[in-house]
Amino acid sequence: MTTLLKQNIASHISLSDTEMEGFCNLFQHKTIQKKSFLLREGEVCKFEGFVTKGLFRVYHIDKNGLEQILYFAIENWWITDIDSFTNESPSQLFIEAIEDSEVLVISKKDKEFAYSNLPKIEKLFRVMTQKTHVALQRRMIDNLSKTAESRYIEFLEKYPKLVQRLSNIQIAAYLGITNVFLSNIRKKIAVRK
């Protein structure tokens, strides 16, 4: 169950077998059925998770009742509401399984334990936080400076396997456009080919 987690960790930092086992043993396995929630708005996020199977969407509902997808998480991706988890405050996000999914979760207490007893783990989360920050910054710049069509084309190129697992409505919510607008973009692209 932890093989994928161990591979992910090893891609960021080097741990001894003992350190790796000690850290991985702090995670608990959860199975989440399709359309079930790992987190709901208003709850305090008490975990950081690592997806071992399936697909999640992390989203917010705006004041007009529209869904705004921050990101998707598939196998080998980390998932949490970092604001709620860090500050122990009510979440503004939903984390919902789009498919039957499995996730390994670590609590804040166990993560702090790892920081104290396995110093390399702080480096692991620092490196991952930096990579996440870079990705979010690039996404913000793209949303401010690129057309919806170019964002859609880049999404297709960057996540070809993910696109096959999502509905057009979900992709539109991620891109910040309506499903109708996305359909128009797809038609325009098809005509050009």
Automatic annotation (TrEMBL):
Gene3D superfamilies: Jelly Rolls. It comes from the Bacteria. Residues 30-110 form the Cyclic nucleotide-binding domain. InterPro entries: cNMP-bd_dom, cNMP-bd_dom_sf, RmlC-like_jellyroll. This is Crp/Fnr family transcriptional regulator.
